[in-house]
Design a protein that fits this description.
Elements lengths: L15 H13 L4 H16 L2
Amino acid sequence: MNKMDKTERIYIRLDKETRDKFYKVCEDKHINKSDLIRSWIKDYIEKEGK
């Protein structure tokens, strides 16, 4: 999948503290936040067999 294929968005609400901690961990580990969330979603889909 290339970047042009990623056209859909999911919006979520987080409290500021959780969001800030997530951003900080990703920054410290040099992890792209969107890539990480996409991998969590794909893993969940595989686990649930859908």
